[in-house]
Each structure stands twice: as structure tokens, then as C-alpha cells.
Specification:
AAA+_ATPase; single chain
């Protein structure tokens, strides 16, 4: 497994650090971590990076100078490392492992190859998740209107979705294929407000679980720098991020919901529900996974009910983590087929997304004409609704205008002609879209 390099983060925004990030530890004790664990972490950092400037050790470990000084002093006294550039400024002092240090580090690497930012304790992480709980986030009617601006959706459904987001409970969005369930579910992310602090890693029973994922967590402010200032800076082991959104579909298996232990690097990756803490977890196409919906639903009963999840290390140690997630299940399967009544009661809201009224179908059709640069005509729309849908007995679904019009766009570009809503082109797209027999 490739080591995560936090220096490559793409940062959003330029506002200064805010109170959402914890205060920087001033001593080893304040980190909550064992002294020797941090010594091992620094040894592995020097092992992988070679001679390293003090300023870079601060950046790699995300620990302030006041914490590093006693650790480095101990390492020097034990002849694990040596200093170069003694007469230089603090910023240019560099450290490198001695032969003794390299030999000792080989032993450390047998336990774990993790050499990233110093982790935080499980209790510290749990407290942070509770402080910034997604349940504290409130969705108003105005926020819903702004987030779904230009979205063609019944007002009654909008009201259900807004109320559901305020509940902090799981949501089941169900209906026929093509009705827009996935699009609606993913669009709920626009309603998330406020930021949250995400740690790079969490330590449990001396085992490191890497939690920050650049594919999931979007930083809003730089949480690290190269300053050697000993003042009360924020704790750089945390990153201020937008509330996370994790989307998974047919690839989801039960094993993915457990810790992912790499036997080569000997540290863990957090499962998707932990990465999604303080945000959304969208399970798309429920029922298309290799595991049955019933088994998957049974896995969620305790987390949804008690707001905690239970994970296990490869050593057998079990521990509890917060489950502060709004889970959104999206499925084509009727709720009664997905799970029993006991589980369905744990789903706060069951929201049906069905076929469209003609007025809504028209609005989506016109929106896609504008988006694709195809001149809208009433005659073309009537042909689609009356002739194509009517004669083939196909329901008015949200996905169809987009799919038909994109095929016309593709074909006319290929032919080198202007796109239009002619009966010939619409019929070609329809027959291309629906299979025969």
C-alpha cells in the first residue's frame, strides 16, 4: 500500500483556522499518545525520508516543536538519531538515524509501517464526532429551496426530504428504475451545512487506523504549516473539512464495513461508515450487491438504533466507534421485500420517488433541451409523450428526456447536422434506447 502523503492536499478556501479545530498539544502527555509510540513514529519517519530537517519533522508528524523536542532528545540520548547542522538556525537543523536507530527501526516496522501524521486517541475522536454531530445541522424550507433550485420535484416530496434530513435518521428512497432516486439522494449533499474536524488517523490499542481520505474529505482550510512557533496553534493532526459524503453501490460487501487491515504495511483503513461520520452515507442500488439486502440490513440494525458501531482489530480486540451518519438507502425494490418490519421501523423516512406528471416531464425535457443546445418545440414534445410513450405504454420517468436528447446530440454531431426534435431523430433515439422483445 502506498503511504498517504498529506502534503499533496488540494485545499479549499483561505480563511484562518477556527475553533472547530482542537488546540495544539504543548506536551507529549497532551497528545494522549504513549511516549515510546511517538519515538517509534519519528524513527520510521526518518527511516523512510532519510536526513530530515526539523521543520519537515514538524510537518510530517503534525506535532509542534514543543512536543518533538523531548522525543528527539530521548532519541539522541539512546543513540537512535544524530543531528547535523548544529550551528544552523532551528529551521535548518536536520536529523538522521544512526546505525543503531536503523536497526531498531527494522523492529518497529515489523509492528507497523505507518509513518504518517501522529494519530489521535479513540476517545478524542469520539468526543469530536459528538460535538459536531450531523444531528445538530438543521435544514429549513428556504435552505431546501436553494439547494434544490431548478430541480423538478414535487413539493410534497421536497418537504419529506427536508424533514428527513433534520431527523438525523436513516432514509429509504425507493421507486421504479429511472425515476431519479440516485440523483435526488446525491443532491441531498447540497443541504449539508457547517464544517467538521477530521483526524488523519486514530489510535486504538496501539494500532493505527488511517481515517482521512482525500477522495472523501474535502479540506476547507490548511491545517498544517512549517512554522516552528511554540505558541498555541491548532492541532495539526486534524483537518477542517466539509461534511463528508460517501457513496457506494453494487460493489458493497459486508467485509467492506469492517476495518481494512493491510498485512504488508500492518495498519488499517477505516470503513466507509466511519469516513462518513458527521455526514452522509449513500447506499445506491440497494439489492444489487453480492450480499443479500436482508444480510446488509441486519448489519445496520445496531448502528442505526444506537448510533454506535462495533469494529474489531485483527488481534481480536473489539471496540466501539460513533455512528453519526445519515444513511440514505436508494432502491428499486419495495420496502417490504428489502427487510422485515423491525428494520423498517428503524428507517426514519420511507420516501417514494415515482413516475412524473406531464407538467414535470415537460420541465425536465425543456431543461435538457437548453443544456444540450437542442431547440425545443411543442410538436417534438407531444410526439414523445403521445406517440412514443403512449403507444409503447412506457411511464414518464425523469431519466428519459435526458437519455433521448443526449442520443440525438450524439447522432447529429456524428452526422454533422444540426440537432432538432424531428420525428425521425426522436424515433431513432427511442428505438436505440429501448431493447426489442
Amino acid at each position: 500500500m502506498e503511504m498517504f502523503n498529506p502534503d499533496g492536499l488540494e485545499l479549499k478556501g483561505s480563511t484562518p483556522p477556527r475553533d472547530i479545530l482542537p488546540r495544539a498539544p504543548q506536551t507529549v502527555k497532551e497528545t494522549g499518545l504513549d511516549f515510546l509510540f511517538l519515538v517509534e513514529l519519528l524513527c520510521k519517519t526518518l527511516f523512510f525520508h532519510g536526513q530530515t530537517r526539523l521543520v519537515d519533522l514538524v510537518n510530517h508528524s503534525r506535532l509542534p516543536l514543543g512536543v518533538l523536542e523531548p522525543l528527539l532528545a530521548f532519541m539522541r540520548s539512546e543513540q537512535l538519531c544524530e543531528v547535523s547542522g548544529r550551528n544552523e538556525t532551528e529551521a535548518t537543523i536536520a536529523y538522521t538515524l544512526t546505525d543503531v536507530g536503523r536497526n531498531r527501526t527494522q523492529t518497529f516496522l515489523q509492528k507497523s509501517h505507518y509513518a504518517g501524521p501522529a494519530p489521535v486517541t479513540l476517545q478524542t475522536y469520539t468526543d469530536a464526532v459528538q460535538r459536531q454531530s450531523v444531528a445538530n445541522m438543521k435544514v429549513t424550507k428556504d435552505l431546501m429551496a436553494e439547494g434544490f433550485k431548478g430541480f423538478v420535484l414535487r413539493q410534497s416530496t421536497m418537504n419529506q426530504l427536508g424533514a428527513a434530513m433534520n431527523s438525523g435518521r436513516a432514509i429509504l428512497v425507493y421507486g421504479p428504475p429511472g425515476s431519479g432516486k440516485t440523483y435526488v439522494s446525491e443532491h441531498l449533499a447540497t443541504l449539508l451545512t457547517g464544517n467538521c474536524a477530521i483526524p488523519y488517523a486514530v489510535l486504538v490499542d496501539s494500532e493505527v487506523i488511517q481515517l482521512f481520505d482525500p477522495l472523501v474529505h474535502q479540506p476547507v482550510v490548511s491545517s498544517h504549516g512549517s512554522s516552528l512557533d511554540k505558541g498555541p496553534l491548532h492541532d495539526a493532526r486534524w483537518v477542517e473539512c466539509q461534511r463528508p459524503v460517501v457513496i457506494t453501490g453494487g460493489e458493497l460487501t459486508l467485509s467492506m464495513l469492517d476495518l481494512d487491515f493491510d498485512p504488508n504495511t500492518r495498519f488499517y483503513q477505516a470503513p466507509p461508515q466511519v469516513k462518513a461520520n458527521n455526514g452522509l452515507l449513500i447506499i445506491d442500488d440497494l439489492g444489487r450487491q453480492l450480499v443479500s439486502p436482508q444480510m446488509l440490513m441486519n448489519r445496520w440494525i445496531v448502528p442505526l438504533d444506537r448510533r454506535v458501531d462495533y469494529l474489531a482489530l485483527h488481534t481480536g480486540t473489539k471496540f466501539m466507534v460513533p455512528f453519526d451518519v445519515i444513511v440514505i438507502f436508494s432502491s428499486n425494490i419495495p420496502p417490504s421485500t428489502l427487510a422485515d418490519e423491525a428494520f423498517l421501523r428503524r428507517l426514519g423516512y420511507k420516501i417514494y420517488i415515482g413516475t412524473l406528471e406531464e407538467e414535470d416531464y415537460r420541465a425536465i425535457f425543456e431543461q435538457n433541451c437548453t443544456r444540450l443546445g437542442i431547440p425545443f418545440t411543442e410538436q417534438g414534445l407531444r410526439f414523445v409523450i403521445d406517440e412514443l410513450h403512449g403507444k409503447h405504454d412506457k411511464p414518464l420517468l425523469a431519466c428519459i428526456p435526458r437519455d433521448l436528447l443526449e442520443q440525438i446530440r450524439d447522432f447529429t454531431f456524428y452526422q454533422g447536422i444540426k440537432p432538432e426534435l424531428s420525428e425521425e431523430l426522436l424515433t431513432w433515439a427511442w428505438e436505440n434506447y429501448y431493447t426489442k422483445g
